[in-house]
Design brief:
Mean pLDDT: 90
Distance between the termini: 21 Å
Number of strands: 2
CATH superfamily: Winged helix-like DNA-binding domain superfamily/Winged helix DNA-binding domain
CATH class: Mainly Alpha
Low-confidence stretches: none
CATH architecture: Orthogonal Bundle
Strand content: 5-15%
Largest sheet: 2 strands, antiparallel
Strand order of the largest sheet: 1-2
Number of helices: 7
Radius of gyration: 19 Å
Amino acid sequence: MPSSAAAKQRLDLDRFLPYRLSILSNQVSDAIARQYSDRFGLSIPEWRAMAVLGGTPGLSAREVAERTAMDKVQVSRAIDSLVRARRVARVADAQDGRIQRLSLTTKGRAIYDEVVPLALHLEDIFLSALKPEERRVLDVLLAKLARQAHLLGGGGK
């Protein structure tokens, strides 16, 4: 429990790192999502699922949720939408029929192959605000913070 002095501290959201990271992430995701939505009719969760499956086909929805750090319900809705649009196919796992393995269809792969260069271009535009050394430092810092967040979330137990 925080001490009474700590409890009286004011939370300045403009300086509170978790809040700032969340806002920045939302701003970047929203800006990029407009491109995906306008050109391909994809939501953020749909694109994230496609991005993961484009690099690692054959995952289950649970594995997609783990890799994207998205809620299982959000992933399930995105996958259902992608299956209806014939962008993702489901196949029962050979060892455990309760598990559905997911992969991009030919249509999904064509969209993925078109979105990847766009995503990388948008990332370049976003990161162009940083000098090369700042990009390297940011990469190191993000890795350190990701490890620490893992520990905060109970991953270090």
